[in-house]
Each structure stands twice: as structure tokens, then as C-alpha cells.
Amino acid sequence: METKMMQDLLGRFPYLNEKVRAQRDRRIYAEIDYANFVEVFEYAIQKLNFTFLCTITGLDEGERISFIYHLTTQDGIILNLKTSVPKEKPVLKTIIGYFRGAEIYERELEDLLGVKVEGLPEGKRYPLPDDWPKDQYPLRKDWKPNA
Amino acid sequence: MHKVIIPIGPQHPALKEPASFRVALSGEKITGLTVRLGYNHRGIEKACEERTYIQDVYLTERICGICSHAHSSAFVQAVEEIAALDIPKRAKYIRTLIGELERIHSHLLWLGVAGHEIGFDTLLMYTWRDREIVMDILAMITGNRVNYGINCIGGVRRDITPEYIKDIFRGVKTLEERTNYYIDIATKETTIIKRLSKVGMLSHDDALKLGAVGPTGRASGIDRDTRRDDPYAAYGELDFKVITDDHCDVFGRTVVRLGELLESYKIIRQVLKELPEGPIAVKAPRKIPAGEAVSRYEAPRGENMHYVKSNGSEKPERVKVRAPTLANLQTVSKMLEDRQLADLPIVIAAIDPCFSCTDRLISIKESNDKRSKIMKWDELREYGIHWYQHRGVDFTKINNKLKRRY
Question: What is the ipTM of this complex?
């Protein structure tokens, strides 16, 4: 099943060549440029039945900030779709149009990694306190607890 | 009618943990609800990056006071996948056993809280008394009532002896009889049915869209359970059913959790009967090779997900945790739309948001004596019994009666 899905992805998006791998049963990892993210993301949801979003992981990787969208099917296969944006201008588009529940995961990215998620409705921040100092993003690698 | 917004929380007598709800009301009817979370944020993900893998096993175990095994298991599974460790079969079975015992204590706890929220405190007293059976079993096997510390990278730290197996079988038999009695109450007692039916409705589509997990999702007909869909530990070799329900309300969530209790007893019996012989752990390296892994675990409240990225050192590069309550809390606003304010406590309780119950060794200070005294669990229990007897509350008779029955 995983092999079939990987072939589907490669057939439809040739630029994924050598960017897709299956680490073990039910685990597919794919890396894509942010410019191509939406089309692959949509294809995975609509054609490959990845109908559930587990969460979004944000990573500080030096020059860039990366995001892994962990999508899963009904039968337990996880597609880990990784993409990244430059750290000087970390801007993402929201995915709440696809998964309403993603709102809280995106707010978490905003608070902890200092990412701007475009298209989020007004709402309370999560998870840091309201009086948390500006420009302090705890999950960035250069941030130290006592700084 | 004039609209009123009332704040509930972050500190509020009806909430067991800090969370802040701003409820917009028109009379008694809820017209809008916003949730603010984060009051318990302790920065554990960042803390994990600054500690070794071995320390992180204990740190992740302390993410939650109830599903502690769920978190440490999800974490060690991810690390073991990166390090390509082959875990002994006996360790997998023991992890499964502790996981199911944890589910039983969590679901019984929930049933009591649900009873309390609807004013049925007898149910709370009964279920929490019965829950002591499973707490005692957990303490017997692991040495702890919560935060069991049974997991290590590469296996488990303690073995199960034949004497334990006998005691667990006996405890599970009693618990099963009690659970059947609760199922009888929950499905026949008119007050429960009327109070829980059509309360906190969450349609199948909304549950899917909002990403509900665990019993909250399964009670809205979402047939999803990590134990079956993405088997870990020993679940791939065991026979059990995933309980779903189509009521889509708090009643459905009750039915699902009670059904899951019966399945847990079934799983435990299989684990004990088929427990393979052999070692319980393999040696794990201190430094974990560079790599990444996603690990999932069906905690009592639903799917728990950990992502671990390693960089070849003895500390992880990144640890990401998504606990089930974060996925489920987003459904609460939907469940309460156009509902009565009085339904709010039970609806919030019905997703079973997590709170801790970690008191075990407690230091007691007499008000007329400045010295404090450390008490063991048994002593504390004795102390409690005498404290109540002294004030005219005596359970000796009923306890003896129960002892004769079971």
C-alpha cells in the first residue's frame, strides 16, 4: 500500500524524485519546496485519502524553519510532509480550510517558533502567556531559558 | 435578549485543571465559546532537547499524571525506531499490560467524574473505590500508582512474576463484574440516560473535520484506534474489538468507555496467558544515530503522537508531543453551541480533559506539632480510615461485606 502511494506521488509530481522514502511499514516521508506544498498536500488529502491531520511539527534548522505535516489515513499510514521557509521571513498559509482543527497547531507554531501564519482568524494565542515578551520564541535553537 | 459574556476559569471550582472559557450567553443559552489554553505549559519539548534520552524517558512520563505510560511509551518507541533496536517480545507484552491497566484506571476515574458532574456522586464513590483495585495492581507491578517508570529505551525495567499474574487475574475478575454492573446502570437507569442523551452533540462530520480522537471520536462513529490501525507493542498479536457508537453525545461517550473497559480486561487476560518467556530489555546505546521517527500510541483519551529527531548525540534535536486532549478540546465549542449553560461541566468532562492525581508519599504536619512525618501509602490509608471513624463515618461493615463477595 505504501509503495503504491509513493508511486502515485512520484508519478504525479516528478520533482519528488529521491525526496520520498518509506522508513518502515506505514511511514512515508516526503520533502517538498513550499512553492509546491499546496498541490501535493491537496493531492494527498483528496486522492490518497489522508483525511486526518495528527499535528504539525515545527523545527528550527538553522537558516530555515521546517514544518512537518503529519497526515494519516483511516488504516494507519502516516505521510510526513516536510516543507520549509527561510528564517528571516517565516510566513506560512493556514490550512484550516482543509482541517478546521489545525488552528491550535498553527497558533503553537506562531508562539513557539515565531512563524506568521496567514489566514488564521482572530483568537487567543497558544500556549504562551499574554504578557510573554515579544520576539522571544522558545523553540528556536538560539533561545535559552534564562536569556 | 441581552448578551452576557461570563469567564469560566482559568481558576474555577468546576474545573479540575486550569483552562479559560469565555462563554457568551443569551439567557441560559450558550451562543459562543472561546477557549484559552496554555496555563499548564511547562516547556517540556524544549526541556527534552537539553536532556539526554534517558532523562527524557522520565520527563515525558511526567507530561501527564494519568496517561504517563502512554507518553513514555510513545517516546521510547520513537527512539527505538531510530536506533533500530529490536525489543524483546516479553517487554512488548509487559508494556501492553501496563498500557491496558492504565486505560482501566483512567476510564474508571472518568466514569466517577462524569457521575459527579451530573450530581450522581454515589457513582463517583463506587467507581473510585473499585479503581483502587487497579491502582493496587499497578503499584504491585511497577512500585508506583502513577508515573510507573516501567519503560526504558530497549524494553522494560521490571518483570512480571507468576504471583503477580495470579493477583492480576483475580483483580480483573472483580473489575469485570463491577464494570458489567456499571454498564447495567448506565444503559438502564433513566436519570443517567436522560441527563446524558442529546447533550454535547458532535456529528460524525464535525468530529472528522475538527480532528476528534479516542472515545470522543469513536462515540461519533469514527472507527479509528491506533492499537488496531497502527499496531505497536503486542497489539498486532492480540484479539480485541474497537468500540464505536453512533449516539454522538455524552451518553455515547459513556457507552464507548465502558465497552473499552471490557475489551481491556480481554486484552489483559490474553497478555497474561500468552506472555512469552525471555529477556525484558536489550542494551541501548547512549548516543542515538541521526534520524527521525513518528510514534503513535492509543492513550485512554485518544491518539497520542510523538515525533523525535536525533542528531547522533546523546540528546535529541527535537521532541514534539501532541496529546489527545489538544485534538479534542477544539470540539468543545461545537458541542456547546446553542446548548444550556448547565450542560457545560459535563460536556467538558466528557472529552475527559487530563488532570493529575499523583499523591502517593505525603508529608503530614500536625497543626500543634512543628515536626512533619513521612507516611507510607498503607499508613496514610489507615490514617484516613481512623480520621473518618473518629468523625462518625465508618465503612468497616460495608468493607467486610464486599470482602465476602469478592
Answer: 0.95
